[in-house]
Design a protein that fits this description.
This protein has 142 residues and is of the alpha+beta class. Helix content is 38%, strand content 23%. It contains 5 helices and 5 strands. A hairpin with a 6-residue loop joins β1 and β2. It is globular and about 45 Å long.
């Protein structure tokens, strides 16, 4: 609880000073996305230390409908691999709360790894998160 409050104070201080917390140093790894209809959306970055080294972020896209209770979170996309630039183009502002249990992400990440992550065969988002989500939605309809 105290760590969360400290992170909140640091984020607020940076924003008051006109500085946006950096994608690579914002410890909670939570960033808001533009809303989609009545859905408030955000990403949770998993393994920020590895992302710093590789430049590849592994994220989970989460959401909640406006008016729903805080606990009613939807896993909009359990895992996406995304480049630093694509993620920077997608996020709006840092968040200090919104983390979820990692099981859904962990399962999806393992499936992604099995698709050939080490051989370069696994999908990686290189444009923006919303463009990649639209492409995925198009693939699912086919």
């Amino acid at each position: 609880m105290i760590a969360n409050q400290l992170v909140t104070l640091v984020v607020l201080a940076l924003m008051a000073a006109g500085q946006k917390p950096d994608l690579l140093t914002h410890r909670p790894g939570l960033w808001s996305l533009p809303p989609r209809g009545d859905m408030v959306r955000w990403v949770e970055i998993h393994d920020l230390d590895q992302a710093r080294k590789s430049g590849l972020f592994h994220i989970e896209v989460l959401g909640r409908r406006r008016g729903d209770p805080a606990w009613k979170i939807e896993h909009l996309l359990p895992h996406m691999a995304i480049t630093t630039m694509a993620l920077r183009r997608s996020i709006v502002e840092p968040l200090t709360a919104g983390s979820v249990y990692p099981e859904t992400f962990d399962d999806a990440y393992r499936r992604w790894q099995k698709t050939g992550a080490s051989a370069g065969g696994a999908p990686i988002c290189e444009t923006t998160l919303d463009e990649c989500l639209r492409a995925l939605e198009g693939q699912r309809r086919e």
